[in-house]
Amino acid sequence: MRLLSITLLCLHAVLAFDYQAKRAKIMRDESLMSIGGQIELTDKESNVNNCLMQHKFQEVDYGFSNPQYYNFSRHFFSYRNIIPKSKAYKIIRDMPKGGALHIHDMGILSPDYLLNITYMENLYVCFEKRDIKLLFANKTPEAKCHTTWQLMSEARNNSRNVTKFDAALRSHFSICVNNPDVIYPSIKEVWDAFMGYFKRVAPMMTYRPVWEQYFYDALEKFRKDNVMYVEVRSVLINLYELDGTAYDQLITAKTYQKAIKRFMKANPDFIGAKIIYAPARNVDRVKLGEYLQLAYRIKADMPEYFAGFDLVGQEDLGNPLVEFLPQLREAAKDLNYFFHAGETNWYGTLTDENLIDAVLLGAKRIGHAYALPKHPSIVKEILENDIGLEVNVISNSVLALVHDVRNHPLSLFIAQGLPVVLSSDDPGIWEADPLTDDFYVAFVGVASRLADLRLLKQLALNSLKYSALGVKEKDLAIAKFGRQWDDFVNNFDCSRYDQ
Ligand SMILES: *[C@@H]1O[C@H](CO)[C@@H](O)[C@H](O)[C@H]1NC(C)=O
Ligand SMILES: *[C@@H]1O[C@H](CO)[C@@H](O)[C@H](O)[C@H]1NC(C)=O
Ligand SMILES: *[C@@H]1O[C@H](CO)[C@@H](O)[C@H](O)[C@H]1NC(C)=O
Ligand SMILES: *[C@@H]1O[C@H](CO)[C@@H](O)[C@H](O)[C@H]1NC(C)=O
Ligand SMILES: [Zn+2]
């Protein structure tokens, strides 16, 4: 009897051990499968990691115990201003992040930058009921205005309080508000505000001297945020001069080339930049044909600066890719595609199905791919063909796809080790950093509590791996990144982040 109970006890222990071993194996397998799971950290990197994780745990664990104060479950606008206080944030800001592969040119720089542009000479303004129009010209514009065009300098001088005047003007250059859940109750209101921004600022920004400087300054801003490579999407609007002369769209593209060359000369540690021609998707086939012709012209003219083609605009309202199949299939042999696809919550719609067409059309990367978890076959294709997924968490939260970022599908992408790159879409319009805010929210708010520096390093490496850089360029880029990474790791001092 006694012997039997001892045997049973042992069996119990063996079974318990077996259970714990299985449990540990599952945890280990999942960790290995996740993005960065295969990376092994050096001693110096572990040193950074310990510091980073200490701060991350503090933030996450405080939220776990006090969910009523947890900020990532709220709207980005409610915690945007306190992010810079986070120590995990500061470490990520100083960390080399590789490249930003999904950004739109007119949405990069801050409202303060745009406000500065309004101090330039020859800018006219038309104040309408709730909106403004802006245009550079050497005489009063003839464009429609429901009130009257006046010189900005005179309007400002005539205002009784310039601080107040500028604050009102600045509010037109951002969609940030104090009460987003009231002002933007659905995707419609926030997209209206978002598109309103582009419509308002485009005529000011496409004045040739402004445009030429803007992109240079945008690259500067990225570099300061420790981002060394950029693939920028552009609608490529025609630039103009004060006398109304308008240039061919190819000139707009060439302006980029000029700015990039000038920037590289001044900053040899920078990796570079390329453009993706990304015009509006709510057009007919004839117009799409014109788009493709322009894409071919740009490619012929500046092949080393041209990454490829995309279509933009609120996906639910524009034409689905399937509408343009014959033309897009034909051009697929010559153009690299980087389609926005699946930026929607509407399961089973044509927008949702854009994911299927993006993959079948041979896209090199997919913009957002927010709806991807609903398409297991496409997940398989993504893995087999190694198609990059450009994830923009803050954009998805601001543009009303997800409220609590813990529910963002990026957590699934990370867990399954999908080819993710993080980007920021239009950070200037919601007053975020060029890239650090997105890395921070993804790392602390979306990824596993246990995800560490290995995830961040792999995401940075992915941004070069899935870039449109050529084979040789890519090797050089990865070498440059390696040097920056080593500098960061070797000079890391945890105590610097203490105060
Ligand atoms: C959340 O944000 C508020 C300000 O918006 C701040 O006072 C608070 O400390 C933050 N909570 C946490 C847990 O960081
Ligand atoms: C705006 O212009 C002022 C004065 O030239 C400058 O100090 C400031 O840095 C500029 N701000 C931005 C955001 O470019
Ligand atoms: C600014 O306004 C004042 C009167 O309000 C006027 O005397 C002055 O000439 C104006 N200056 C400019 C540059 O328009
Ligand atoms: C100008 O407007 C700002 C912001 O509305 C306000 O804080 C300031 O007191 C005003 N200045 C004067 C002189 O009225
Ligand atoms: Zn986008």
TrEMBL record:
One Gene Ontology term, aspect cellular component: extracellular space
Q: Which reaction does it catalyse?
A: adenosine + H2O + H(+) = inosine + NH4(+)
Listed EC numbers: 3.5.4.4
The family database entries (Gene3D superfamilies) matched by this protein are listed as: Metal-dependent hydrolases
The molecular function terms of the Gene Ontology recorded here are:
adenosine deaminase activity; metal ion binding
Keywords, comma-separated and alphabetical? Hydrolase, Metal-binding, Secreted, Signal
Matching PANTHER family = ADENOSINE DEAMINASE (PTHR11409), ADENOSINE DEAMINASE 2 (PTHR11409:SF39)
Name by which UniProt lists this protein: Adenosine deaminase
This chain's source organism reads: Leptidea sinapis
